[in-house]
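ok new one. same drill as before - structure tokens go in, u give me an amino acid for every spot. 510 of them this time. try not to just spam alanines like last time pls lmao
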């Protein structure tokens, strides 16, 4: 028997229209797309091939998507790589793709030829509170994808209710209800800390007068409507920045020149060298202080896992890889093996943040697997992370490791700086340390470097010794000639046509 969601989707197809089905999870989006694809008669072989070519090495998820897209149905979520998302969105506009089964990440920012939006549920899992209703604003974003004026005269947004009682509740809360108030993001402490340090570092704020004058004109102050309380919050934040050694407070009583120039008693705010660099790195000052504290504990005994966990247990790395109840014992075992490598104390198991700490360990183990050359299918199977999510996490890791390197440089932590630099390269290419010498050359990434190493070529010296014919058998003639030219060796015969360009590390290819 076909359920309501599939019935509505098939009805949309019969009317020669297109639809988006919003589902609460990635797994449900993929499952619904698969089930719907078995009910259509489309056969787009070209799309099947193109979606597989979007990644150098197709994963199980890619193959799953290719079977769906062939039938004009797809799933769309954050686990897809950008090339696949762009292909789906473009072909949906062209009319080949008829149904997108998506998570709510597709709800904002895109205008697509959607006639009907089908929302399976307006409830989401909210941690310890269980299932809860989503905000009205989120519902409006999803419903607003239907009937865009440049594509349709009107559209339909349909919410599937379980029973009559839920139908009435949805009608009252979402159809008759009002969207929530919009609040200033400055009220969020990480944003305020970061913003305040940047204003001081850029010289926009120099003292209490300029600070109060600036913030009195913000939407936050307009909404807050209590300037004395707001001043107290700002004062507390500046005290923290001073305590963390990112800002220096100079009282004009102690500075005769400043006092005579200003003709009043003020606290001048100046960034330290460390604070200015933290601002330039766009780091939350709390994260910067946490990284600095961790790096100060870095020693000869520390290894790459020490740094991987340090960057994983930050706000900037969220959302972390979630640890299921089935995985908990295994992650705990891995933590015990690496316990002495941690640069922070393990919180109590009764601490409210302990589950987040375990999630940070799982995230660290994923990074460790990546730099030990595990492929995307392995990472999906063991850590539940998809290709698109891998890219996002690697970008965040690159940023945080670079920040660690810069902080170590300013604080003259020479060993940490050197080790971080090597780890950054390994993270970028996803390689073991033994391949570092080989990836210095263009066109050599994780896969080609591993091929060379497996054939006994372990460094640039080995590449110079091997003849071009033998090298060509390993990597192909064009790549072999390109490498020899980079090494300054003359190549007698250069093939006609376009040379092979430098491969993009973003595709995780060798």
């Amino acid at each position: 028997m076909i359920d309501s969601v599939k019935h509505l989707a098939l009805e949309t197809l019969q009317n020669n229209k297109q639809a988006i089905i919003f589902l609460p999870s990635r797994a449900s989006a993929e499952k619904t797309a698969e089930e719907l694809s078995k009910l259509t008669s489309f056969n787009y072989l070209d799309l099947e091939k193109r979606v597989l070519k979007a990644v150098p090495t197709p994963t199980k998820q890619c193959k799953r998507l290719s079977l769906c897209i062939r039938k004009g149905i797809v799933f769309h979520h954050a686990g897809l790589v950008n090339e696949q998302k762009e292909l789906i969105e473009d072909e949906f506009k062209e009319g080949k793709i008829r149904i997108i089964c998506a998570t709510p990440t597709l709800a904002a920012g895109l205008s697509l030829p959607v006639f009907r939006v089908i929302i399976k549920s307006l409830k989401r899992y909210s941690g310890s509170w269980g299932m809860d209703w989503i905000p009205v604003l989120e519902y409006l974003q999803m419903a607003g994808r239907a009937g865009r004026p440049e594509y349709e005269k009107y559209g339909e947004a349909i919410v599937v209710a379980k029973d009559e009682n839920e139908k009435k509740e949805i009608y009252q809360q979402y159809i008759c209800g009002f969207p929530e108030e919009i609040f200033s993001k400055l009220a969020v402490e990480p944003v305020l800390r970061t913003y305040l340090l940047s204003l001081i570092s850029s010289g926009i704020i120099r003292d209490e007068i300029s600070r109060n004058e600036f913030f009195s004109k913000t939407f936050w102050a307009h909404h807050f409507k209590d300037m004395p309380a707001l001043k107290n919050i700002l004062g507390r934040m500046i005290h923290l920045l001073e305590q963390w050694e990112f800002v220096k407070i100079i009282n004009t009583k102690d500075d005769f020149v400043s006092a005579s120039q200003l003709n009043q008693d003020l606290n001048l705010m100046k960034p330290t060298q460390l604070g200015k660099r933290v601002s330039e790195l766009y780091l939350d000052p709390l994260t910067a202080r946490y990284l600095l504290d961790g790096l100060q504990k870095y020693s000869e005994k520390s290894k790459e896992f020490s740094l991987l966990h340090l960057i994983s247990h930050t706000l900037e790395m969220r959302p972390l890889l979630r640890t299921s109840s089935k995985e908990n014992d295994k992650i705990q075992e891995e933590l015990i093996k690496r316990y002495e490598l941690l640069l922070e104390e393990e919180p109590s198991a009764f601490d409210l943040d302990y589950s987040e700490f375990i999630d940070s360990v799982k995230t660290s183990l994923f990074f460790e697997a990546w730099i030990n050359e595990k492929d995307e299918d392995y990472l999906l199977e063991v850590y539940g992370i998809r290709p698109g999510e891998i890219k996002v996490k690697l970008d965040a890791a690159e940023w945080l490791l670079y920040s660690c390197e810069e902080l170590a440089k300013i604080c003259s932590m020479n060993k940490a700086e050197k080790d971080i630099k090597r780890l950054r390269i390994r993270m970028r290419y996803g390689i073991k340390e033994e391949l570092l010498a080989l990836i210095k050359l263009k066109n050599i990434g994780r896969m080609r470097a591993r091929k060379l190493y497996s054939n006994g070529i372990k460094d640039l010296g080995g590449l110079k010794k091997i003849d071009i014919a033998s090298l060509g058998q390993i990597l192909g003639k064009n790549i072999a000639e390109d490498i020899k030219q980079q090494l300054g060796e003359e190549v007698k015969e250069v093939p006609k046509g376009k040379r092979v360009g430098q491969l993009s590390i973003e595709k995780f290819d060798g």
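Residues 285-430 form a domain with the Sec63 N-terminal domain-like fold fold (CATH 1.10.3380.30). and btw The longest helix spans residues 387-410.
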